[in-house]
Each structure stands twice: as structure tokens, then as C-alpha cells.
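User: For my dataset I need records formatted as: sequence, then C-alpha cells, nothing else. Please produce one.
Assistant:
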Amino acid sequence: MKKPTKSVLYDTYWEFACRRFEVFTKRITDSIGPWTEDPVIAHNRFTNVFRASDRVSQYLIKLQYEEHDLEEIFFKTMLFKIFNKIETYQYLEKGLGKISCKSFSLEKYDQLLIRRRKKNTIYSAAYIMPSAGSTFGYKFKHSNHLALLSKMMKDGLYNSIAKSKNLKEVFHLLLSYPSLGNFLAFQYAIDLNYSNLINFSEMDFVIAGPGAKNGILKCFTSLGDYSFEDTIKMMAENQEAECERLGIELPTLWGRKLQLIDCQNLFCEVDKYLRVTKPDIGGLSKRKRIKQKFIAPKGPLTFFFPPKWNLNNKINSPCQK
């Protein structure tokens, strides 16, 4: 197979990963900063190099391990991820007293969210959620998504997923549902894989999202015979050699190397970074700016990862060792 041809921007991928990861490690012990001399990283919002260490992923993982019942784990994961917004989930918790698939009522959840949306955004800006209105026919987007969740529960989807043989099979099960395209189905598969419902390697399977594709096309002038996914796998396989070549320290999450999902996300973040640093390189989207500015969250950073990763006993030690 003919390999991809690197562009002059290729090294930016690894340099950005190193600088963004340095911000993460410094913030663990220094809540004030500054954490970087790079003004673009300092003033704009970029996700963490390791997806599981992001604020929203952290909330979800902690939520998943409060539960032991697999049906409840699936329900809470999907409910949370449909909106992908901590404040929306907390609002539902407050209004319902307890969130449980056993007492799920589409009408009750719907009415709460109708009230919420009058003054607040109920969806995260991270993903674009198709409405599924053509399938379920409700007036509001969130109502259709609640109907989608209801269908998943009635179908016993959690059971099928629990019996899956690999991450790709989980992806295809999710993909079979209305409004879940390739990108969302893959992201949800990764989120479910954090939990005890399934346990597959994050090196098994990847799908390139729109932002990642844009980043790839900025870092390579040609993909040769490689697909976008092949290119992401190549980055993961070569991470140690590439960091050594550039004389930078390989980012690792307490010894856990970059996984395919992390390398996919990094392409998306590098695309954003290059919008500002190299605005003449338009890529597919032609965007020239980053929408969200960085706002440091209040309070100390605390982390909890899926116990099956064996990282939680290492959190107090230096992150790169």
C-alpha cells in the first residue's frame, strides 16, 4: 500500500499534542497558571489529549461506576450522551429525584426539558445531533431523542451490546438506530466501553469524524492508498518513534499511550489549532477561527478512570511516568 505523504504541517500534530498535554499535567499541581507560552492554546478551548480525561468524559465515567446493573448503566450513559451536557443531566436528576430506566417516562422527561430549553441550552455544542423527527414525529428535537432512547430500551439494545464480540459490532448495533451516523455511533461505542457493560481495547476500531478528516487533510498532501482510519492507526502505531524523532516527550496517561480515539480527537483539535496559526490553509471546512474560548474551571482537578485500566492508583504520581 502506498503510504500517506506528509505535508509541511505534519509535525504540528505531535508538537500540539505535547504542548496541550503539558497544560494538562501542569494544571494537576498548579491551579493558577500560566500553563503554556503558546497564546493559541492559552486562550482557546481545546479538549484534553486523552479523551477520557476531559471534564464531560470524567463526569460520565464516575456516573457509570455508581451503578452495577448493566441495564441502568446503558440507560444512564445514553441519556447523558444524547445531550452531552452535565448541566442538563443534573437538571433532570433534580427534577426527577432519581434517574432510572425502571421509572423512565418519556412524557415526564419531555415536560422537564421543555421547561429547561426556554432559558437554557440543553445540548452540548461538541456534537451536532440530528433531530430524528422524521422517524418519531415529535415537535421538539429532544422529544425525538427521548423516543429514540425509549426504543433502544424496549429493544433490549443493552443486552445485544453486552454480548458483542468487539467494538466494531457495538458500533454497527448503534448505527442501526435512526439519526445515529458513523461519528456518533462510534463516539457512543467508546463511551459505553468505559463502563462495565463491555470491555474492548480502544486500539481495535476507529471512525474518523468530520473534524479529524479536516485535520488529516492539513497534515498530509495525499493519503496514498490509506483511508482516514488507516491514517489514524498509523499515527497511533508510530507515536513513540515520531516523538523521539522530534525530541519531545511522548504524552502518556500514567503509562497509557495514545489510543485510536485519542489520535482521532487530536486531528480534530489540530485542525482547530491550524485555523488560527495557519489561516491560509483552509482544508475542507474553510473555517478561520475557534468558536469557544478557554475558561478555567473552578476547584481542584480530580480524576477517576475505568478501574479496568488500572490507572486510579497512579493518579498521584507524575502523569508521564
